[in-house]
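Hello,

Our lab assistant flagged a job as stuck in the queue for most of the afternoon. It eventually completed. Since we weren't sure the result was trustworthy after the delay, we are filing this so someone can double-check. Below is the sequence as submitted and the structure that was eventually returned. Let us know if re-running is recommended.
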Amino acid sequence: MNRICAVAVAVFVWTAVALAQPSTTIELYPADAATINGTVPGNDADAETTVEPRVLLRFDLSQIPGGMQVEYAELIVGEVTLPPGIEYVGFVVAPVLEPWNGDDVSWDQTGAGAEWNDPGGDWDREDFTYGAAGVALRRPPFFNVTTLVRDWVSGTSDVANYGFLLMPVEGTPNTDALVGILDATQLRPVLTVQYGK
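-- returned structure --
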């Protein structure tokens, strides 16, 4: 009886220790990235069209060990400079639906031997999130992408990890805030992932 009790206690202690293991947080920088520019309908009354920059970011999630559960994932865009006179700019980030190559990608071409179905990048219009840059926000634009990253890591996503497409919210009066974020030296785009058992 004492031996059975001892085994039961040992199993209980081992289980409690395993469950109490702290989460791990890692920071991932883009494995591939690119800025593409194209013409979209004008947002200003004086302009019929305007040139809009969009940013493609893909992160290598293989650093997260198999069997781990993603608890939280946040994408921080990086160093965004607001144009003069602009105090707030909204952004959309969404999963990309097709593979692309950062060396050759363009507004019309994926750079992976195919054209985009929609110029400016094929993205999931049902699975996206919002972020913003503003004078009063006092931090770079950030996006909660937990569900998407969790599904990529677990292999349950309907779309492979082709990364994120970042673009201004439709109707934004000035889209230049995305220009140069991949060239920033102080604060680059980063994906922070917290995971555990």
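-- support follow-up --
The delay was a queue issue, not a problem with the job. The result is valid. The two ends are 33 Å apart (CA to CA). Residues 22-196 form one domain.
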